[in-house]
Amino acid sequence: MRYRTLGTSGLRISELILGAMTFGEQGGVGAPMTECRQMLDLYAEAGGNMIDTAINYRDGASEEFLGELLSGRRESFVLGTKYTVSRDRTDPNAAGNHRKNLRASLETSLRRLRTDYLDVYWVHMWDQHTPLEETMRALDDAVQAGKVLYVGISDAPAWVVSRANTLAEWRGWSPFVGLQVPYSLLQRDIERELLPMAESLGLGVTAWSPLGGGVLSGKYALGTPASGSRLAPESLSARDHAVARVVQDVADELGTTSSQVAIAWTMCRSPLIHPIVGARTADQLRDNLAAADLVLPPETIARLNEATAFELGFPYDFIAQTSSWVFGAALVGSVG
User: Fold this and answer.
1) Which of 208, 230, 277, 323 could form a disulfide with 288 if both were Cys (CB 3.0 to 4.6 A apart)?
2) Which tens digits make up the pLDDT trace of 313-331?
3) How far apart are CA 21 and CA 56, in angstroms?
4) H/E stretch holding 104
5) Residue 5 φ then ψ, to 5°
6) Could you tell me the pTM of the whole model?
């Protein structure tokens, strides 16, 4: 496993992140403690060092499992969790990004995880009803108190993240060093605004669902997914099936698996991207981790890109179409 810093921070994290959303059997199909222990050990043996969870995963069981599993080796891992999602649906202040929920959520997560600090504390989702100033100041207070080392944000528009970090820069608060977003061959939306923003601001990108909800794992390619699969074959679109077939064809040609091809593709898109790999069994995780050693040939990358091409939309397509007319002889190509 290779390591890179998370965005502009000095925090060294492995190129693949372990997602603990499946840790626990509450709320649906998940993994029991024995299987979770095997997965964590396997990840550590492979050189992985960053773990991602959230206060609401498995109704809190994910954090509780990690608290037990990390006992005695907490310092060997970069531990991150998220807040925003409601802790109590009967309490209007038990959700959102305001100071009150942040404080209560943070204390809850620290207690479950059996630690006195978090390496990364993530805003789980943009809360339109809480001023950004309040969220950023409250996060900075948590950093100043030593309970949080770095902060990041998940599932938010690019303009929100940009404004938040501008506020942090102006006022001397802790900026977001990471951005967590969905990214896969099936969902490339972040290439419009979010990924260019992250590259411009120097944000590390932790990509969730690199297998497109399991569609790119290979189990749907033949139309007969294994029991426990989240999606029925008939719920997938023609595009989903077409992309899955191309990924499977590439995997067959390279002598690897669909999951490894899909994860490796996300990694080659930008040096800032760290895929989050989750699994329900140690065997699934072992297969996913092997993607770290897979180098896709340039022609293969081009083939995958073409199979999943999408329109950037306005204003990007418009700017590209009119650039020669607007700039004339001043039009120059990008460097690199």
Assistant:
1) 277
2) 999 999 989 999 998 888 7
3) 9
4) helix 99-113
5) -75, 150
6) 0.93
Check if the beta carbon of residue 276 is closer than 8 Å to that of residue 289.
Answer: no
Q: Which residues are identified as catalytic?
A: 57
DSSP letter for 239, please: H
Q: Minimal CA–CA distance to 139: which of 156, 129, 152?
A: 152
Residue with tokens 């001023």: 131
Whether pLDDT at 115 is above 50? yes
Contact 175, 165 (CB under 8 A): yes
Kindly state the helix (H) or strand (E) to which residue 141 belongs, with its residue range: helix 132-144
Show the domains of the chain with their CATH numbers.
3-211+270-294 (3.20.20.100)
DSSP 8-state code for residue 125: S
3-state secondary structure of 66: helix
Using CA atoms, how far residue 84 sits from 105, 190, 298, in Å, is: 8, 21, 40
- What is the rounded CA–CA span in Å between residue 12 and residue 5? 4
* Other C-beta atoms lying within 10 Å of the C-beta of residue 21: 18
158 and 179 in contact (C-beta within 8 Å)? no
C-alpha distances (whole Å) from 95 to each of 129, 214, 315 are 11, 29, 35
pLDDT tens digits, 39-65: 999 999 999 999 999 999 999 999 999
Backbone phi and psi for residue 285, each to the nearest 5 degrees, phi listed first = -65, -40
User: For residues 184 and 21, what is the distance between their CA atoms, to the nearest angstrom?
Assistant: 18
